[in-house]
Amino acid sequence: MKSIILIIISATLVLAACQDSRKLTPAPETIFDDQGLHVITSFHNARTHTISVLYGNDDALAHAREERAAHTSGEATPGEATPGVVFKLVTWDLKQNPLWFGSNINGGLRSVETVTVSTGGSGPAIDYAIRHSRQKRDENAATSKAERISFIFAQQASVFP
Amino acid sequence: MSSSARIQFPTTAPNPTFEKKQTAMKTLKHHTFRNIAAVLAGIFFTSFVVLQVNSPEIENPPVTSEFHGPEEVTRILKRSCYDCHSNETNLRWYDKVAPFSYKVAADVEEARKRFNFSEWDSIPKGEQEGKLWYIVNMIEAGRMPLPEYTATHPSAKVTPAELTVLKNYVTSISQKHYATGDTAKIVDKPKVANVPTSVIGIRYFDDYKNWKVISTTGRPDNGTSRIIYGNDIAVKALEENDILPWPDGAVIVKVVWNSQAPDADGNVKPGNFNNVQMMVRDAKKFAGTEGWGFARFGGLDLKPYGKTTAFATSCINCHQLAKGTGFVFDIPTKPAQR
Hints:
Chain A is α+β, with helices and mostly antiparallel strands. Chain A has helices spanning 2-12, 58-73, 142-153, and strands at 24-26, 38-45, 50-56, 86-96, 104-120, 123-132. Chain A has one domain (24-153). Chain A has a 5-stranded antiparallel sheet. Chain B is α+β, with helices and mostly antiparallel strands. The radius of gyration of chain B is 27 Å and the shape is globular. Strand 2 of chain A pairs antiparallel with strand 4 (267-268) of chain B. Chain A: Keywords: Signal.
C-alpha cells in the first residue's frame, strides 16, 4: 500500500530539472592515438590552463623511470639520451568538468611535441618538433626548443600498480 | 493511533436497486455508472481518511554532533536542507497531510540515512570534506533540495549567489588542505603476488595500460591527478556517440595519484599512486547499479574497496550526476547541439 502510494505520488510530481549546461555530446576527436606508445606521466597547470600526458616508447619509459629512481634514491644518475628514444608530449586545454565542480578535465587538443633521439655523427642527435592543432604554424624557435627538450627529458615516470 | 477510525463502506454488498430493474437495459447502465461513481468516491474518501489516520509521524532525535561552518554557510544549509538532512525537521502543516506526508516521511528517512547535519561527526573526518563537495555538486545539478520539495517550499531553493558562497567555502577548505601537496617520497613497491578481486566479482587486471587514454583530470577538490582509459568498445562507443546506454563490454579504468604542489612553473605533477577504479559494463549482471559494475583497488597492494557488494550503490548514487553521459563523468565532451 505504502509503496503504491509512493509510486503514484512520485509519478504525478513531474520534475523538470533539466539543465542545459549538462547536455553534452562526446568529443572523441580529442582522444590521442598513441600508436602503441606507453603512458609515462601526466601533469596539469592552472596558470597556462593546460593538461598534458607524456607518452614514449620502451626506451623513453626506461629513461623516465631512471629519472624517478634518481630523484627518490638520490643515488642513481639518469641515463643519457640514447638513440631510439621517442617521446610525445600531448597537451590539451584545461577546463572545468561540466558534470562536477571541483574537477578539471582536458578539453580540446592544443599541441603534440615529439622528441626523437637518433645516431648522429658525433654522438646522439636530438630532434624536436611541435604540431599545434589550432594555430597553423610550426614553432621551432631555438631557445624554447632546447628548453622543451630538457623539460621532457626531466619528467619522471608515474608509479603504476 | 487506532484503526477504529476507519470508515466501513459496503463495496461488495448486494445492491437492491440493481436487482429490481434488471430488465431495463438503459436504466441498468445508468445505474451501474452511478453506482460505480459512488463506489469510487467512497473508496477515495475512505482511503483519504485511512491515510490521514495512519499518516507517518516524523520524530526529531537529539542533535549529537552538529555541522559547524561559517555562519553564512550554515544559514543556507539550515534553510534549504535541514528539513530532511537533520534532526531538526520542521514540517509545514501541508507536509503532514496524507498522501503527501508519506512521501515526505520517506524522503526524510532516506535523507537522514545518506547524511545528517545533526550527526555530522558520524561521517569519518576524512570523508566530511568529500561530502561537502558532493553537497555543492548536488545543488549545482539542480537535484537538491529535491525539486518536488521546492515546488511546495520555494523559499528552500538555493540561489545562484548562495551556491557561490558554498563553492567558495569548499574551495577554501581544500586549498588549505592540499596546499603542500604530496611531499612523501614516491614509493614504487614490487607488484602484488596475488591479483585481487573485488567482492563484486571484478578482478584487477593490467590490460588498460595498452588502452587509449580517453581523458585526464586534475582535481583541486581532493588533491589528486588522474588518467582515464577506455577499452576498444568504450572508445568506439564515444566515436559513434553510442553511450546512452553504453554497450555491454565497455570498460573504463581510472588511475589516481596524489598531486604534488605546483612547481615553479605551475605544473602539478603526480606523486604517490593512490588507487585504481573500474567501471565494467554489463547491463544484465549489474542491473541494480544502472548496468555498471564498480570496483576500486587502493594502494600499491591494490586492496579491494568494499566489504559487501552494497558499496557499489554509493558509487552509482553519485554517478547519477553524470546520467546524461551514461553515468560516466570523465569523457571528452562538447555542448550538445540543440
